[in-house]
Amino acid sequence: MILIERATLQHVEGISDVCSRGYRATYGESHPKSYIERIIEEFYHPDRISSEITDGGDGWDGWHVALEDGTVLGAIGGGMTGAYRGEVFVLYLDPDRRGEGIGTLLLEALTRIQREKGATEQWVSVARGNQKGIPFYEARGFVFQHEQESYSNGEDEPFVSNRYCRGI
Ligand SMILES: CC(C)(COP(=O)(O)OP(=O)(O)OC[C@H]1O[C@@H](n2cnc3c(N)ncnc32)[C@H](O)[C@@H]1OP(=O)(O)O)[C@@H](O)C(=O)NCCC(=O)NCCS
Q1: Does residue 56 have a pLDDT over 80?
Q2: Does the C-beta of 133 come closer than 6 Å to ligand 1?
Q3: Residue 22 CB less than 6 A away from ligand 1
Q4: What is the pLDDT, as a whole number, of residue 57?
Q5: Residue 95: what are its φ and ψ, rounded to 5°?
Q6: Pocket lining: 100 vs ligand 1, CB cutoff 6 Å
Q7: For 46, how many CA atoms within 13 A lie in the half-sphere containing its CB?
Q8: Residue 30: pLDDT band by 50, 70, 90 thresholds?
Q9: H or E element that contains 81
Q10: What are 92-133's pLDDT values in tens digits?
Q11: What residue owns the CA closest to ligand 1's atom 3?
Q12: Residue 154 C-alpha to ligand 1 middle, in angstroms?
C-alpha cells in the first residue's frame, strides 16, 4: 500500500535519493553531467532538505512523500507564489516506479493544501523537451503558457523551461 504523508526528518535520505536519481534519469541525456551533479548537490543535498522540512517558511508548503513500507518512492514540494497562485517546485519518483499513479497521488496532496490556502491556479516549470514530465502534466490538465530561460551558471547556454498552468 502506498501512503502519502507530510515528510519528517526520517524521510530526508529517501527524498534526497529519489530526487537525485530522478533528476539524473530525467536529464541525463539532455544536460551536461557537470550541470546535473551541481544541481543535485545544491538542491537535493540532505542538509538542505532537512532545513526545508524543519524551517518551512512563507511560500513553502513543505515536502510530501509517497511511502511503501516506510521507503520513499517519490517526493513533491511546492508553495504559494501569489494570493491565488500555487506552484509545484519539485516532483520526482524512483525512476523504476513511474506510471503507477504515484505522481498523481503526490500532486493531489499538494493541490489540496494549495486550494485550502486559496489557490485557484497552479503553475509548474518543466524543461523544454522533458518527455518524462510534460505528458504527465498535460494528462492532469496543465496547459502550456510560455517559455522562460531557466537556471544556469551563466557560462553555459541557458536552458529553456516551459511554464504550464491549470485551474484548481
Ligand atoms: C512526472 C512523474 C512525477 C509522473 O508520475 P507518475 O506516477 O509516473 O505518473 P502517473 O502514473 O500518476 O500518470 C498520470 C497520467 O500521466 C500520464 N503520463 C505520465 N507520464 C507519461 C509519459 N511519459 N507519457 C505519456 N503519458 C504519461 C499517464 O498516462 C497518466 O494518465 P491517465 O491518468 O490519464 O491515464 C514521474 O513520471 C517522474 O518522476 N518523471 C520524471 C521526473 C520529472 O520529469 N519530473 C517533473 C519535473 S518538473
Answers
A1: no
A2: yes
A3: yes
A4: 79
A5: -55, -20
A6: yes
A7: 8
A8: confident
A9: strand 71-82
A10: 999 999 999 999 999 999 999 999 999 999 999 999 889 999
A11: 103
A12: 31
Task: Indicate if ligand 1 lies below 6 Å from the C-beta of 130.
Answer: yes
Residue 29 has pLDDT above 90, yes or no: no
- Ligand 1 centre distance from Cα of residue 51 (Å): 28
101 Cα to the center of ligand 1, angstroms: 8
Instruction: Give the residue whose CA is nearest to atom 1 of ligand 1.
Output: 133
Domains of the chain: 2-167 (3.40.630.30)
Reduce the DSSP state of residue 139 to 3 states and report it.
Answer: helix
User: Which amino acid does the sequence have at 32?
Assistant: P
- Cα(133) to ligand 1 centroid in Å equals 6
Query: What mean pLDDT do residues 140-161 have?
Result: 80
Please determine, for residue 153, whether its predicted confidence score (pLDDT) is greater than 70. no
Residue 140 grid coordinates = 492532469
Buried b (16+ CB within 10 A) or exposed e, 99-117: eeebbebbbebbbebbeee
Tell me whether strands 71-82 and 143-149 are parallel, antiparallel or unpaired.
unpaired
* Percent of the chain clearing pLDDT 90 (strictly above): 83
Nearest to 85 by CA among 7, 2, 153, 167: 167
